[in-house]
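Researcher: I'm preparing a figure for a lab meeting and need a structural model of a single chain. I don't have an experimental structure, so a prediction will have to do for now. The sequence is pasted below. Please return the structure as tokens so I can convert it later.
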Amino acid sequence: MSDAAAPAKYLISQLDELPAVRCPCGWTRRAFAVEDNPVATIHLVDIQRDARTHYHKRLTEIYLILSGTGHLEIDGELVPVKPLTAVLIRPGCRHRAIGTLTIVNIPVPAFDPHDEWFD
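Model: Understood. Here is the structure written out token by token.
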């Protein structure tokens, strides 16, 4: 017999069906950003030309480039990126994407909108 009140042990999200919200990089669709999930989230991000340099004090982010070519500006260094480039960005690292890119961003721990900082 199962406990009907027990929370599910998994979550499923269809990223392309989530509403897009504005972020420092462009437009993002955020999955698993729920109160009872402190572990990690996953974001599908369309990078825009006006992407702003920012950093996080607590979050580590993993960027996976899905499409497009361009650069990541990471602590002032321009790093070329193309599809299937993966980059781990630690807390305190100032960063922004440059170019027409679609990326997957995995923040760890789960994304916190209060942990976006600008100089």
